[in-house]
Design a protein that fits this description.
Blueprint (H helix, E strand, L loop, with lengths): L1 H19 L4 H9 L14 H25 L1
């Protein structure tokens, strides 16, 4: 029961953090339409984007681990 509640909290947190991230779909649209873009310019994430990315990775790992634990138990 505790794992189920924890999974719901992690799921909601993961959704919120994903929605807070800046959109990166502009490069995909430009690549598909052939418009000039800086799609291949390798820009490093800095500041809030880097923190949100790391939080997203951590929450995603926690989500999968909890889901597996709930399924096994």
């Amino acid at each position: 029961m505790v794992l189920n509640i924890l999974l719901v909290l992690v799921s909601v947190a993961l959704i919120v953090v994903c929605l807070l991230q800046s959109g990166k779909s502009d490069g995909v649209v430009n690549a598909l339409t052939g418009q000039s873009s800086n799609l291949f310019a390798h820009q490093k994430e800095r500041g809030a984007d880097l923190v949100l990315t790391r939080i997203t990775i951590g929450l995603a790992i926690a989500f999968f681990v909890l889901a597996i634990l709930i399924r096994m138990g």
